[in-house]
Write a structure and sequence with these properties.
Elements: H1 3-17, H2 33-67, H3 76-99, H4 107-133
C-alpha cells in the first residue's frame, strides 16, 4: 500500500469518525454552509426519528383494527405498510428534483435535506391525523 494512499485513507477515516459534532448553539444561527448542512442533517434525523415513532404507533393501531374486522375486510396494516413503502421513494425523488435548483452547488444538499425534513414532518402529521380518526 503506497504512502500516499495510506495517508489519504487515514485522513478520510479520521474526518469521518472523529468529526466534531455541531453544538446546538451553532444551529440557532449557523454561519457557514457546513454548519447549515450539519444543522439541516440534525433536523432531518429528528424528523425521521419522529416519523418512525408515529409510523410504528399507526402500524400497531392498523394491525389491531384488522383483528377486529371480518376476514374479507382486513388489510389496514398492509395498506399502511404499502403506502409508507411508496411514500419514501416519492419523498426522496421529490426532494432530489428540488435539489436541481442548485445543481452542483453547495446549496444542493442543503436544499434536499430541508425538503426531506419538511416532507417527513408532513408525513408524521398525516399519520397523526389517521390515528386521531381511529
Amino acid at each position: 500500500m503506497s504512502l500516499i494512499f495510506r495517508t489519504c485513507l487515514w485522513a478520510f477515516l479520521t474526518s469521518c469518525c472523529f468529526a466534531t459534532p455541531v453544538l446546538a448553539e451553532s444551529c440557532i444561527d449557523p454561519q457557514t454552509t457546513l454548519e447549515m448542512r450539519l444543522c439541516a442533517s440534525q433536523d432531518y434525523e429528528a424528523a425521521d426519528a419522529e416519523l418512525n415513532a408515529v409510523y410504528k404507533e399507526a402500524r400497531a393501531v392498523m394491525k389491531a383494527l384488522d383483528q377486529d374486522l371480518p376476514e374479507n375486510l382486513k388489510g389496514a396494516g398492509e395498506a399502511l405498510l404499502q403506502a409508507q413503502r411508496a411514500w419514501i421513494p416519492f419523498r426522496d425523488k421529490a426532494c432530489e428534483s428540488e435539489g436541481f435548483l442548485f445543481r452542483g452547488g453547495s446549496f444542493e444538499p442543503l436544499t434536499v435535506l430541508h425538503c426531506k425534513t419538511e416532507l417527513t414532518r408532513q408525513r408524521s402529521e398525516q399519520l397523526r391525523f389517521l390515528l386521531e380518526g381511529l
